[in-house]
Amino acid sequence: MSGKLLGIAHPWGMTTTAEMIGVVGGGQLARMMVEAAAERQVAVAVQTGSTDDPACAGSSRQVIADPRDVAGTRQLMVGCQGITFENEWVNIDALIPLEKQGVRFRPALSALSPLVNKLSQRQLLSDLSIATPPWCPLSRISPAQPALPQGWSFPVMAKAAHGGYDGKGTVVVESIEDLARLIRSVESDEWLLECWVDYERELALVVSRDSQGRVRRFPLVETHQSQQVCDWVLAPAAVDQGVEAQAYNVAASLLTKLNYVGVLALEFFFGPDGLQVNEVAPRTHNSGHYSIEACSSSQFDQQVCIAAGLPVPSPEFTSNGALMVNLLGLETATTSLQQRLDALAALPDAHLHWYGKSPETPGRKLGHVTVLLSGADAKQREQQAQSALEVIRGIWPSPTVNSALS
Which intervals hold domain ATP-grasp (predicted)? Predict the structure, then answer.
């Protein structure tokens, strides 16, 4: 990798190279960012808890510290042109002094802050008149006489404000008794309640915004969850152009309001009540992994360019379509891990990404496979995707249920 010094002076008193960025976090998202950076000869330093974490392979420097450890981030910033994040589980209050000293975080902490907490995230969306499922803070429910808001009915979904992902931090509440138990067992001001949503499809959109305010978008995609874990992603989603335009307008409004610089993903419900935002992720996202092979610039390339201060290319879709299938750890398997990986790697038009995690813990995201689709229309692509999904699941079964594209 290039070590050319550009002589850029920073307020904290160091001269840095424009070809190194820092990433807070060391999981698979950071690993794929490291791989994208290598294509641009940009070095990456990572802050992560273990040298065995996926992003350590290929990174130029490792700071072995919990991603929430601000002392570790102080070490990470040395020699870096910009700092970005693998996920939103960061200690924003502790990082503010570093930003005041001149550390360039992408996204900025002021843009990240309202998105890392689901309560403040939902309030922001409400303030912008962006449709979401009806919700309320759990703290508004009386512990003495628990009852749902007027017009609501069971079941409802309860979500933790911090740290929930892949079904963690969520509880289906079926009755008043369930609601009372939930209130007794959690900190009510750290949870929200959400109406149950009858939707036809789950959709997702990844966008980016550079420091000049230019917004770039990837195709709107369809996602399929099994037991609240993403099973597959189909790009592009077979929806009316008006739906895609509405999703983009929602994203652009949010990015502009926050003066957000970086990559951001939105998850949507789409059904009888129209398009509703389910969650916002201020980072690269599982739903955008297909972009590595199917777009001229992947979501990870976008984040690298933004963090490094490089020109950000337009992420053109270079394939008719793509299917991305997650590989989750299996409790039992009839073939060895290597046999499964070899079989997946041999599939035509398939691209295997293995994250290097060990051991194969049941349900753990260990890798993904992207299959490029050649179908000229949505129906042909869905047929191709269904056939490819059946082959992949024949090699690597899903520990979840109902993986079909229907």
Answer: 122-308
